[in-house]
Amino acid sequence: MTLNKTGQTALASFDPQAPAPPPEEPTGPQVVIEKVDLNAELVVIRNKGTSVVSLAGWKILSVEGGQSYTFPSGFNLPAGGSVNVWSGKNAKDNPPTDLKWRGTYIWNNDGDPGILYDNTGEEVSRYGG
What we know:
The structure is a single chain. The protein is mainly beta. It contains no helices and twelve strands. It has strands spanning 2-3, 9-10, 31-37, 42-47, 53-54, 59-62, 68-70, 76-77, 82-87, 98-102, 114-117, 123-127. A four-stranded mixed beta sheet has the order 3-4-9-10, with no helix packed on it. A four-stranded antiparallel beta sheet has the order 7-6-11-12, with no helix packed on it. A two-stranded antiparallel sheet has the order 1-2. A hairpin with a 5-residue loop joins strand 11 (114-117) and strand 12 (123-127). The termini are far apart.
C-alpha cells in the first residue's frame, strides 16, 4: 500500500497502451548435466538456453575416480540441444551428438557424482552426490 501526501491510499495507474516489459532472462545454469547413467557409462549435457554455447575447454569430472573429460576445440552445443558423452567398452563416437570419453570404464556404479566446469574452471552444473 502506498500513501500519497495527504495520507490517502494512492492507486497505481495502468496504461493498456504501454508495451509490456520484456520477459526476464532465465536465471541459473543454462548448460546442465541432465543425466549420468552409471551403468551405461553415459553423461548427457543439455543446453537449456536460447543461444549456442561453445563448450570448447569445458570439463566433466567423475568425482569418485577423479577422471575428467575435456570438450574438444570448436565444439558448440546448439540452443535446446544435447550431447551424449560415452565411456566404457561400448563408447560411441559420432560427433556432434555422441562423443567418446575413453574406452575404459569411468563411473563408479555404487554412486559417483558428475560435475561440469566451464572453460574458466567455474562449476556450472552438478549431478548426483
